[in-house]
Write a structure and sequence with these properties.
The chain is built from 6 helices and 5 strands; from the N terminus they run βαβαβαβαβαα. By secondary structure, it is an alpha/beta fold. The protein has one domain: HUPs (Rossmann fold, 3-Layer(aba) Sandwich), CATH 3.40.50.620. The chain is globular.
Length: about 160
């Protein structure tokens, strides 16, 4: 039986920190579904379609990674995919509080759903999509420490 997991998030944009979590999770799981959540309470820089294309391009040579978009509860996606492990990254103690709450709610809604937390690698502990967008908005084209080349190019286009 193949071990599969869901890595949910907004990924606006997908950073090298996100990629690090996926690569490390693939040491444990045979397949990762990167699940882009449509959050109507946020105004994203990139549409879900754009983010999906960006992430698919990053992992286009790796059949162990699939990218999906969902607009319902994560537990519904887990049921639809029949995947009951969620991967999440933690940068700081403040992340743990939020993630612990979400994991508890998810398990209340779907008792089979388990969450697995990965501590962010030290070199990415400062990194967030918000920081990347702020740097990009200042017309800084040197984003190679933060995102892949295809995402860097899309960020430059958005802010020109």
């Amino acid at each position: 039986m193949k071990k599969k997991a869901i890595y949910p998030g907004s990924f606006d944009p997908f950073t090298l920190g996100h990629m690090d979590i996926v690569q490390r999770a693939l040491k444990i799981f045979d397949h990762i579904y990167i699940a882009i959540g449509e959050n109507t309470h946020k105004t994203p820089l990139f549409s879900c379609s754009e983010r999906k294309k960006q992430i698919e391009k990053i992992f286009d040579d790796d059949p162990r990674v699939s990218v999906v978009v969902f607009d319902s509860l994560l537990v519904n996606l887990a049921r639809d995919l029949k995947v009951y492990t969620v991967v999440r990254g933690l940068r700081a103690v403040s992340d743990f509080e939020t993630e612990f709450q979400m994991a508890s709610i998810n398990r209340a809604l779907e008792p089979e759903l388990e969450s697995m937390f990965f501590m962010t690698s030290d070199k990415f502990s400062f990194l967030s999509s918000s920081v990347v967008k702020e740097i990009a908005s200042m017309n800084n084209e040197d984003l190679s420490l933060f995102v892949t080349d295809n995402v860097r190019k899309d960020l430059i286009k958005k802010f020109k």
